[in-house]
Amino acid sequence: MTSLDDASATPNAWFKLDRGVLTLGGLWTIQQSARLDDQLRAFQPPPIPEGGSGTIEIDASKIERLDSAGAWLLLRTRRVLEAGGRSVSRFTLPELYQPLLENIEQGKGPLEEPPQRGGLNSRLERIGRATVHAGQQGYRMLGYLGRVTVEGIEALASPRNNALPIVGLLAFLIGVVLAYQGADQLKRFGAEIFTINLLGVGILREIGGLITAIIVAGRSGSAFTAQIGTMRVNEEIDAMQTIGLNTVDVLVLPRIIGLVIALPLLTFYSDIMGLIGGAVMCYFQLGITIPVFMRQLNDAISVNTFMVGLIKAPVFALVISLVGCYEGFQVERNAASVGLLTTRSVVEGVFLVIVLDAAFSVMFSVLGI
Predict the structure, then answer these.
(1) Which residues, 6 or more positions from 243, have their beta carbon under 8 angstroms from its beta carbon?
(2) Which residues contact 348 (CB under 8 A, 6 or more apart)?
(3) What are phi and psi of 116, to 5 degrees?
């Protein structure tokens, strides 16, 4: 009988070879893997007798506990025996551990050497692995920061994907048209200078905010509906609800908050572009210089004029985002419904914005603002 451990000592993990049967028992776990590894490497089965078959049986039925490290050692032992010319005729293992052994044998489990505990080399290896991992993580984060920086600069330098170009262009052209039409009517009474008053009050109180809200309703409101609707078609919203996510917190509130912050800024930008367009038209049509334009504009408007138009922007944003998200959640599980609800979202958003603008005008008039 060949044995590396004395069975009478009842070790935590043991094995012995007796009459062609390799018996294994005890706790084949990671805690015992270092000792077992050393003993198995030193284990030398007796040579195959001349004319013998060289068959051997592995009886692991007495193993009380087995983990990945122990299973790996079992498989390695079998492979070493087969590489030495032995033929394993039977491999007995408790049924409980059969799936673990099969997974590791098929490459689904850890195939590396079982970890060695203690020792200077082991500590140095862990320090080296941690250092390399930290360096790689830092390198990847630095690369991601660079990508975000480059794309941010590109978005500012070439704003094709945001609403600034279209809002600015339309506001500028509306300022031009309003100045032209106002001057054409007012010069009949010799009051061309009051074209600036018309521009300042009209754009700051009404037209700048209204045009911006309509553009955003067609652009961002429809995008909200299409995005959420597509998620419904692809059952992504169902998946989010299954894992316990609140779809309002994840999908609706960020869009509402983002638009409530962005629309007042867009309205301010639209007001400035509209006034610039009117100033350009007044210069070429009426010969009013920029200093004269600014002086008359300062006399025509006040802070209240500016704030009246700006106060309406967050309300418009709230309505547009609510309509867009609501219609997105109403999408049925087909692609045609996405297009239908997106169109409905734009129509409803524009309609409600105009109704609210009229209500604000009446309310401000009644309040004398």
Answers:
(1) none
(2) 323, 327
(3) -95, 135
Token pair listed for 228 = 């959420």
- Count CB neighbours of 116 within 10 A: 13
Q: 58: how many CB neighbours lie within 10 A of its CB?
A: 22
Tens of pLDDT, residues 53-97: 678 888 888 898 888 888 888 888 888 888 877 888 888 888 888
Beta pairing partners, 15? 24
Query: pLDDT tens-digit profile of 214-238?
Result: 999 998 999 999 999 999 998 898 8
Residue with tokens 């195939």: 111
Same domain, 264 and 360: yes
* φ, ψ for residue 49, nearest 5 deg: -65, 155
Domain boundary among 105, 124, 139: 105
Report yes or no on 117 lying in a domain. Answer: no
Three-state secondary structure of 296-322: HHHHHCCHHHHHHHHHHHHHHHHHHHH
- For residue 87, report the phi and psi dihedrals to the nearest 5 degrees: -115, 115
Looking at 82, 105, 128, the residue that finishes a domain is 105
User: Could you tell me if 290 and 357 lie in one domain?
Assistant: yes
Residue 221 maps to a domain: yes
Q: Which domain holds residue 68?
A: 2-105
Q: How far apart are CA 78 and CA 34, in angstroms?
A: 18
